[in-house]
Amino acid sequence: MKKDNSLVGIKELAKLANVSIGTIDRVLHDRPGVAAKTKERVLAVLQEHDYQPNMIARALASRKARRIVVLIPSASPESAYWKAPLEGVRTAGSEIQRYSFTLDVLLFDQNDRHSFIPLAMQLLEEDFDALVLAPMFHQEAQPLLQHCDENKIPYVFINSDIPGSDSAAYFGPDLFQSGCMSAQLINYISNPADEILLVHISREMEMQHHLLRKEEGLLQYMQDNGMKQKLHKLVIRDTTYSAIEQALAEQLKNTTIQVLFVTNSRVASVARFIEEQQVAGICLIGFDYLPDNIAYLEKGIIDFLLCHKPVAQGYKSVMSLFQLLEAQQEPQKINYMPIDIISKENYRYYEN
């Protein structure tokens, strides 16, 4: 007996062939990107169930549209970091739209929790099928996450995680290990008598803030490995350059620093200060492969950048929800990105 040629049937075929609906589509239209053995298996399953390309096309066209919402920060004048995940999100969105998926991106100011709240509340009143969330504000995100849990709406976290949540997946760095990696790098390039300045630049620094997890990793590595370098800490809550300049000038007036570690992508602002003030003898380490950071890397003012593939984070987070909704393929719960160390000598070969 021939199978019912409905959307459910298509999903069943994808399961039988152990592939996604997208792979079935590529095979039917003879598009590249499918391994020969996989193509053979898909064709065999399609033939066994007497599915024809026009039947697939009609079923795909008649399905109910599904909506994935992406709630992440916007790029800011002080840091263009979030342009990179957004690039990955947009790429994924263009790939899934042919399968009757819509992708809506909502952007908030990562320096202002009050910009996040109305967007989260807005979603409580709307219909959507899945959510990608950058959980910058843990407490303010709870009503939205509870709504998702109660209504069985899958959600994934990007760039930072909320441990203990019921998210479908997390795509981003192991923040604690990023701090450990930074400390190991500092240990290689400094002497026991040197002094280190750790700098947080963020308007929002609640106890669960992701930057603090990097600090925890750095402190743990220093303790576990008997590092004798003296550590100073500077928290700058005003992210404008004038405020950063003032805070650094005051700090460096009273201490002699050999290594300066910035815990996020705003390291370019610190590099600008070092360049303008002609500060010598400091090794500067920060995060993220961004144009401003790369410019200072080329000049030799920034020595090392730690990078976590933000474009891939955005792309994979959306595609994981697509696969979950489309083919019931559960994503891996934790998906850590690489911790890459970029220098003046290798940055030209790096893909974000």
Automatic annotation (TrEMBL):
Gene3D superfamilies named in the record = 3.40.50.2300, lambda repressor-like DNA-binding domains
What PANTHER family does the database record attribute to this sequence?
Answer: LACI-FAMILY TRANSCRIPTION REGULATOR, LACI-RELATED TRANSCRIPTIONAL REPRESSOR
Record InterPro entries: HTH_LacI, Lambda_DNA-bd_dom_sf, Peripla_BP_I, SBP_2_dom
Recorded superkingdom? Bacteria
HTH lacI-type domain: which residues? 8-62
Kindly give the PROSITE patterns that the UniProt entry links to this protein: HTH_LACI_1 (PS00356), HTH_LACI_2 (PS50932)
Could you give a GO molecular-function term held by this entry?
transcription cis-regulatory region binding
What's the protein name?
Transcriptional regulator, LacI family
Source organism per entry reads Sphingobacterium spiritivorum ATCC 33861
Q: Which CDD domains match?
A: HTH_LacI
Answer yes or no on keyword Phosphoprotein.
no
* Keywords noted in UniProt: DNA-binding, Transcription, Transcription regulation
